[in-house]
Amino acid sequence: MxxxxxxxxxxxxxxxxxxxxxLSVLLMTVFSSMVPLVIAFTVDYVIGDKPVELxxxxxxxxxxxxGISTIRNNLWIILAVxxxxxxxxxxxxxxxGKCSAVAAQASSKRMREKLYGHLQHLPFDxxxxxxxxxxxxxxxxxxxxxxxFISTQSIEALQIILQVIVVLAVMIAMDLKYTLISxxxxxxxxVITVRFFINMMKVFxxxxxxxxxxxxxxxxxxxxxxxxxAFGAQNFEMEKFDEKNRTHRDLNMxxxxxxxxxxxxxxxxxxxxxALVIAVGxxxxxxxxxxxxxxxxxxSYAGMLVWPLRNLGQMMGFxxxxxxxxxxxxxxxxxxxxxxTTGETPPVQGEIVFEDVxxxxxxxxxxxxxxxxxxxxxxxxxxxxxxxxxxxxxxxLLLRLYDYTKGSIRIDGxxxxxxxxxxxxxxxxxxxxxxxxxxxxxxxxIGIGCGQVDEDRILAxxxxxxxxxxxxxxxxxxxxxxxxxxxTLSGGQRQRIAxxxxxxxxxxxxxxxxxLSAVDAETDARIRxxxxxxxxxxxxxxxxHRITTLAEADKILVLDKGRIIQSGTHExxxxxxxxxxxxxxxxxxxxxxxEEATG
Amino acid sequence: xxxxxxxxERCEIVYFEEAExxxxxxxxxxxKLAIFAKPYKKTIIMLMVQMLFLALVDALFPKLSEYxxxxxxxxxxxxxxxxxxxxxxxxxxxxxxxxxxxxxxxGTIEYGIPYDMRxxxxxxxxxxxxxxxxxxxVGWLVSRMTSDINRIGITLSWHVVDFFWSIFLVIIMTVxxxxxxxxxxxxxxCVVPALVIISMVFQKKILFNYRKVRKYNSQITAAFxxxxxxxxxxxxxxxxxxxxxxxxxxxxxxxxxxxxxxxxSSIYTPLIILLGSIATGLVLWKGGFEVSRNITSYxxxxxxxxxxxxxxxxxKSFARVFTELQYTQAAAERVVTLLETENExxxxxxxxxxxxxxxxxxxxxxxxFHGHIxxxxxxxxxxxxxxxxxxFNLEVRPGEKIALVGETGSGKTTIVNLACRFYEPTxxxxxxxxxxYRERPLLWLYSNIGYVLQEPYLxxxxxxxxxxxxxxxxxxxxIVRAAKIVNAHDFIMRLEKGYDTQVGERGSxxxxxxxxxxSFARAILSDPGMFVLDEATxxxxxxxxxxxxxxxxxxxxxxxxxxxAHRLSTIRSADRILVIDKGRIIEEGTHKELLKKxxxxxxxxxxxxxxxxxxxxxxKAGSR
Lengths: 599, 624
Fold this sequence. Notes:
The structure holds 2 protein chains of 2 kinds. By secondary structure, chain A is an alpha/beta fold. Helices cover 65% and strands 10% of the residues of chain A. Chain A has helices at residues 2-11, 15-32, 34-47, 56-61, 64-73, 76-120, 124-129, 132-174, 176-182, 186-223, 225-230, 234-286, 292-333, 391-398, 421-427, 442-447, 455-464, 468-473, 491-503, 521-534, 547-551, 570-573, 579-598, and strands spanning 352-362, 365-375, 380-384, 406-411, 414-415, 428-431, 509-513, 539-543, 555-560, 563-568. Chain A has a 6-stranded mixed sheet with strand order 6-7-8-3-9-10, sandwiched between helices. A 4-stranded antiparallel sheet of chain A has the order 2-1-4-5, with helices on one face. The radius of gyration of chain A is 37 Å and the shape is elongated. Chain B has a domain at 29-340: ABC transporter transmembrane region fold (Up-down Bundle). Chain B has 23 helices and 10 strands. In chain B, a hairpin with a 2-residue loop joins strand 9 and strand 10. In chain B, helix 6 (138-180) runs antiparallel to helix 12 and helix 19 runs parallel beside helix 20. The chains are: A alpha/beta, B alpha/beta.
């Protein structure tokens, strides 16, 4: 039921259009089932000499006999009637096509946008934990299955059902017994088809998987071509691929054989049904029970029932798939999005205060265990600590990607939890260690998130991030595309572009989460100098391993197991015995090594 | 014909935008494809003959109705009625059997030919040199192997079916009509030219639109992909709404175009039906007059009415196939181009004559590999590029450890690529054990190289399979021994299923350090005479780092080795360090010698290498 509700939600908003297309389907079917009637009428009454029987009330008013003779003398009237009917049928067919496309496309557009928007607004934690491949699969192939269902299958199914109802009504009105004969085998064909395709879905999935495996093996071989060659493993690879290739072929050939049995069998029944209509009809004409015109009409009608109903059965087999997909989408939509906009929007200057902040991802496993410190507006603070010390968690809290469990964080005196998430993220720029770049041009990547940006700002940001030169060297400069269709960037280049994209927004608080690790020390220093010149009173938090980087900060925080164990300036910290001095000493020892060698 | 519905969708995965419409008919492509079709010649011919019969019976059914009306219904006689029924049932059974066999035959071709083609193309891909792969994106090759080859399979089966069925049916119906009554025949046939023209125009448009919709669809897929993989970054930038707005632009385009495409399709069918009913009307007009005067029989009238309606299906199908063929031609051209790509690095004819070809080399004839390598006046440039190396000379003694140091783009990788014969010198020569390596089989050299990439590359499968990569007769003891040598055994045993643990696609379930150790074990197992190592720049934890260093020392023991070095400890332990800049050796010697020079190496060392050591130091202090 919930699935149906979900489906209704997608359809809502296009109600009128759907109604219009259903109406068109109905009228189209009415007109299309009139054509055999006209032919039957012509055969029986115009060409043949069967008298027309009309209810007495009508017969007295209409001069049937003279009407028929008028037609007999002007047979073009039949042509005209046929053309007019078909024209009307055509108009409604067109309307049906157009309206259903408008409605279905609008529905699937709504569905896609809803899902995309929902995903964007799910909390950070969701995206950290989720299997990306699985979600992408749901958002693409499952959505496509549903889209297929709403845009094609459901409309076609509806059309077939309406057509069956109208045609059956006309047939029954003409001759009930003949109608029963004409649909004798159809239910059997229908049931067989539905069951067949439900069973086949599993086999289809297996075949698709076999194709997936084959492609994966191929991709692996091509991407690892150097290894393949260096190990002289071409023969080995050919056997491996051949096995997948063969499985794929064999599985599909099996399917083809099953399909041949199915289509051969049901075709046989459908054609027998058709033959039955003509044979029984002819027999009854000889017996004088029906007219030739009726046989001609019924033979048309049988065609309008048999094949579409088999189609319907096939579609119903596939529809099960759509409901499975709907369920998988629903699972995503069931996750609660984070509240993005509510909260205060105070001016952000850059003063940060942590007071006894606690945080844990899992109960009983504290990541931050009572952290307190204060950063003045415009200060540069460096954080160091071993892997897992809680450095990244600490800065994630600032962006409200997670909420702290205990204690207080205040930005310019305002409690962080009261500030809207959107607002705070607009005012804090963070550069991640492994930044994600979008498959757009470099220019767009840098300018992303600030709407219209002029060229100068982009260039300035790129220069500050020391990446301008590297970009200029690409064939298309700033228009070079990033990713598969463009250039492959080195880790350092990616980091620097990410820095440019963050600083272009001129935020009051800037965070570097180990994001200069792939840049050499010299460039690192250049970037930091350029940043200082760019904006003097930006509060900056730098997570780094480099003592040279740390040494220049206004304040250094040493983090260990969720606590701050040391804090102060470089000069202060090297005076006391502690982790900072130890690290500094080991790193300086290198200089001695050089001296020894050169001395 | 609905039994193709499933297939049609599958050949539409388009990875790259490219010309997909064969402009001119090219007989050469057909000839090339004929080679693949040859083993299926009988099946294809049989299929064509079947289509003739299928069409014949399709055209006979209205004849049956005609006979029934004229002989029984009008005459009010049942004479011969049961025989007639028998004939009708017989035809139905024949037709169904024919359909059954036709699907089987078409399926055999649809999957049989692509199987052979894939096998052939894959073989070709194994032979092509690294230089080809450096120029060609993997995605492009995958598209050739999947969507293009699928399409060729579908064309040689289902499009052949449709093509011959429609042509035969049109011919047979025309003949039947002309035999029965020329006057009526002309009435039905007079709408056919319009039918053909409209069908050609619309089918082309419809198919074009369909493919464009698919393309929009793949754009939406890509957008989802990006929105999900980049979700964390999007959040930190606070641009969720911008991303959604951009996504909506794509979906809007998709919707607008789909509606337009649907509109075109919904004009086509009414037009065709209208033409059919004009023909029917014309027949009724003339027939009404003539039947009532007994010039024409009822049956004939019904026959022509049936044919007037039946004409539309084969014409439509013909028009569609005609358009599809043009797409297939483009696909076939790409596959043929790939098959005909000239291999830049291959064994010479003399080498093949002596040792056998690349894939079936005679190993007993192979000379022993000592690992003495000489670059003699080597000049090298990539295709259409500037010289990367110019007059480069280098001699490496057997067992010597060479570390290559220099900036990105200095030519380190090129030197290694040349030594491995992934590329060959443009001028000059490279001698291995005193002989130009072009006089030796490629496989001989490759079998003697132990190669470890910067980004260790594992294949999906188990740990065991990865260590024993490429060799079938390896015992478990050998695998374990290799793993022990490179310190991989302990961590492997700690994995859930030990050596039988699945490593995931490209080893995704293992850490970088673990992948490195496994790739060392893999290289050790092949007992190479020469080692090539592109050292990873990415940092691993201190403990693994230590294990790797230790493994490295043991792996390189007594083997000629080229190391593109990043780690200080590796460089220090090298027998000789070559500092490369702009394709030249600017400094060479041991670590100490080079530091004394206070030149390029000294600067490099103090600026960059020390940094890495700093990080190590930091980790050590931090873990205390």
